[in-house]
Amino acid sequence: MSSSAAASCPVENLLLSVENLSLKEGSADTNNHHGLSTRNYLLHGNGGSLPRIRETRINGFSQYQTGFENSMLLPPPLFSESVWGSNSLSNGGSFQGSRLQPRARILVPNYNFLSGSALDVGTGRAGSGLGGVDNSMVQNQEELKKVRIFLGLLQGDSIVNYCSDQHGSRTIQGLLRLRNPEITREIYNKVLALSSRGIAVVLELMLDQHGWHVFGELIDALNYQQLKLITYEITKNLDAFVSLTLDTHGSNSIRKVIRLLRRSPLVTLVMNNLRAAFFTIMTNRIGSYAVSECFNQLSAEDNRLLYEAAIECCLDLAIDHEGSLALIRVINTIQGLQRYRLLDILSTYVAFLSQDPKGNYVVQKVISLNNPLFTQKICHHLRGYYGTISLQKGGSHIAEKCLDTEWKSWVIEDFLSNTNTLLQVAKDEFGNYVIQKALNVTKKSGSPLYQKLLLRLQPHLSILRSGYGRNVFNLITGGRSVKKV
């Protein structure tokens, strides 16, 4: 049906067609028994949805029991597909790419009868008849009545489905941008209701690729009391909160909440949850962005508990792939006494971290800060380990960085203390770069250690002529060959 034809249809005709259906959160009653199977999903800690469902057969049809206590069996829809609205209003597509997985099709109301009305306000599409339309249109009782009717058709799963569609999402966002208290309150009440899966609609919207934009527009339009209740709904269950944080769209939603609440005491509700699941969140790439949002948006005092959590588990974070990256972001922002405590722990356990594939990056970060106190401590605690770490990819970089400090003599003395270790490092894939660095920095500074290194290496040049040792050989001889001793 064209938009012009739809616009001319009386609202009563639309309501009459809806009255013939008995909708109950994703199911319908009729005599037609040829329908689609229903599938329900739960939020899961990995972000997204995870089946936790028990299948039952009733009258030959599959029914499913969710993992929620006291939940009811949901029968399959009994209408043919032609009766149900598409999951995607724009092109008849499915939920592919959405965090909400396919389930029973829900009747999606046709909003074309509101074309050119208040419903289109704020969508920003060219040629949609929005020119000159503002909030005054909603003050028109007839237009407001149409919006009420439209919103009345969105209940439970239907509002989730509707907001999961790109066009539907933009429509609801347009309504919210009107900042009309009655419309905002109506949408607000609907997203606080439970879907057929026993989950608040707001949580399902936050996980969806289009729904999270509706959520963001909604919280911008709420008053303090409404925002307080929404924040409580998001944070009251730690497992559900973590599921949101570890999901791409859920994390975007949480970060939006943090930015909005940065000057409000309500942000404490979010901070407490981030603190409670700190290690889980920080060792997840997507989840760690929510914590970083706090570091970027809030004061050092507001972040005090999060920084304390980072200090408590810094060693575990440092040896985790995502955790080490997140910890480096902590180092970039932490200040004051907490900064000193964190760097002191990392410097103390530097021998352990330097030999870890991920931890060595954290050590390199601390050295790059050029803080004499902690650089000296690192160089000191690595004495006796320079030969070992120079044989490792990450550790060799740390040894080279230590050679750029005023405590480079500790590194060279380690090599001079054992000729076999010196030769082993010089012939190694990674270690030869450390020995080249040692020769270069001592020669440039005129240190007597340069001559000591030469005296130890020259008798063994024939051994260094091949393999990775050739780099050291060429540096000492200038590329000249030597007779085999």
From TrEMBL:
One Gene Ontology term from the biological process aspect of the record: regulation of translation
GO CC annotations on file: cytoplasm
One Pfam family, short name: PUF
InterPro entries per UniProt: ARM-like, ARM-type_fold, PUM-HD, Pumilio_RNA-bd_rpt
Domain PUM-HD: 132-480
Keyword Repeat: yes
Pumilio repeat intervals: 152-189, 344-380, 414-456
Annotated keywords: Repeat, RNA-binding, Translation regulation
MF-aspect GO terms: mRNA binding
Segments forming a coiled coil: none
Keyword RNA-binding listed: yes
Protein name as catalogued: PUM-HD domain-containing protein
